[in-house]
Amino acid sequence: MLSGSIPRSLSRLTNLTTLDLSGNLLTGLIPPEFGDSLKLQGLYLGKNQLSGTIPERLGRLSSLVKLNFTSNKNLSGPVPTSFGNLKGLTHLDLSSNELSGELPS
Predict the structure, then answer these.
(1) What is the pLDDT of residues 65-91, one digit of tens each?
(2) Pfam families in the record, alphabetically (predicted)?
(3) How many domains does the chain have?
């Protein structure tokens, strides 16, 4: 099981299409640099202990199809308005967090 914070250096893997770090003991913030991983199609960070807000920059992931941040319990704040840009998104799971507001259209 992985623990500690998510390394920002993962965003430098420019050909990465799927990142699955779910079901670990990861803590801290979601690195905003993930918003620069433009080939990313699946981002799975559920069932960790991540905290803070979801970075607005993730709305730049135009190739994203699946996004799962379920069960982090310490993720809070509004769902980024930039998520309205994720036109190819077919799966979004933000359940079991402390997020607020509405999903952008």
Answers:
(1) 999 999 998 999 999 999 999 999 999
(2) LRR_1, LRR_8
(3) 1
